[in-house]
Amino acid sequence: MILKKDSLKLGLTLGFITPIVGMFAYYFIQFRLFTLAEFFEVMFQQKSLLSGIISLSLIANAVVFTLYINKQIDKTARGIFIATCIYALAALVVKWVL
To answer: What φ, ψ does residue 43 adopt, rounded to 5°?
Structure first.
């Protein structure tokens, strides 16, 4: 199966997609009464909410990273970790610069 492949490219792909899935999960849990357009509008208007959602979405990456580390698929785990660091830096930039 492709998800068992030990590849940095796969890790980066998973690392960048998983937080987006986490963000949509957060939307369905907390903001399901709003439309998706309203959710994004509020999120981009309130930078503290945006950085918080990015941070919470990274929990999804932590789960996937842990799965790959436990299976000793290290190159893929390294890619997930790199993507997580990039997302974390983006969250800091949003919180402190924008």
So the answer is: -65, -40
C-alpha to C-alpha distance for 15 and 60, rounded to whole angstroms: 9
pTM of the model: 0.84
**Among 95, 66, 79, 93, which Cα is nearest to 16's?**
79
Domain span including residue 9: 2-96
Yes or no: say if 56 and 30 are a contact pair by the CB < 8 Å rule.
no
In the chain, the number of structural domains is 1
CA triplet 87, 61, 96: central angle to 5 degrees?
Answer: 25
* pLDDT tens sequence across 61-88: 999 999 999 999 999 999 999 999 998 8
